Amino acid sequence: MKQETLLLVEDDSQAVMLLRRIFKKRVFDVTIAVASDGAEALQYLIGPVTGEQALHELPAVVLLDLDLPKIHGFEVLRRMRADPRTKTLPVIILTSDREIDAATGITLGANSFMRKPLNFEEFSRTLVAIGLARLHQGGR
After folding, report:
1. Using CA atoms, how far apart are residues 98 and 54, in angstroms rounded to an integer?
2. pTM attached to this predicted model
3. Which CATH number covers residue 59?
């Protein structure tokens, strides 16, 4: 069985390293692709405007930080939902910003909204709720 990909859109390299370690320890059966800013995330998901480069296969889920360089996470989400290729792709917003209201992300089309640091039991329940229990070996 082909291993699923999870796209982590996160500009903090320490957070990326920590999340990779935790995902491995928690037995998530995924390959983690990383985009370090909003523009890179859109390039990965929707592709270049010129069309000269092949598109990546879509990940099973996108973990989207909001406070990103180049293009804010809410704008990334808005553009994803406007594109037929990524319109229904599951997105979980991850943020440590306590001022941001979860309703904004849900209104823009996010499937879930979670605060960092991530509670992995809650994260596992979220994957099940959005139909992605297969990503967690314990969910099979």
Report:
1. 38
2. 0.86
3. 3.40.50.2300
